[in-house]
Structures are given as structure tokens and as C-alpha cells.
Predict the structure.
Amino acid sequence: MEANIRTFKDFLQLYNLLSHTCFKRCIDNLNTRNLDDNEIKCVEDCAEKFIRLNHRFMAIYVEHQQVLVNRRMKEAEAAAAAAAVDSTNDASSTNALETSESEHLPQSSVAVG
């Protein structure tokens, strides 16, 4: 649900940027209520250019995002493998320490029980 809200917010930001940019670039005369033919053509061209540019950016982003995801997965796998090796080494050194300590302990000659 939160991802949908974030996507909608991103869309609204993009729409607002498009509206603001094309309005500033194309609308010259605020004395009339209707747009003249030149303003309509300018707004259409501006919006089309903006949308094409956004599609290009998104394609590049998706391409690079996949590379980043793959790199992070490899790093996570390497870190997990290193952690597994470390835990194995820790267990081996603990067992070796316990073995060497028990060899140096004096044996009791008193029987219990």
C-alpha cells in the first residue's frame, strides 16, 4: 500500500514539474482565457519532449538499477559466505581450545558416587 502511495506522489511531482515547465516556456499572454494556436502547439511539443525524456531516463535507470541490484546481491552473498567461514573458524578454535584445556587439567583420582 505504501509503495502505491509513493508511486502516486512521484507521478504527481512529475506532472507538476511538466505543467510548470511547459507553462513557463509556452504561455505568453494571460489576457485571454483560451490558448492561441502557437501556445497550444508549444505546450503539446513541450509535453511530448518532456515525456520522451522521462521515458529515456526511466529506461536508463532501470538498466543501471539492475546492475546495482546484481552487485549488491553478490556482495551480500560474499558477506554471508565470509560470515559462515568465520563462524566455522570460531567453532573450530573453540573446540581446539576446549581440547587443549582439558589435556592440561589434572585428573582426579577420587571416584565420585
About this structure: Residues 37-104 form the longest helix (68 residues). The chain has one domain: 1-81. The two ends are 67 Å apart (CA to CA).
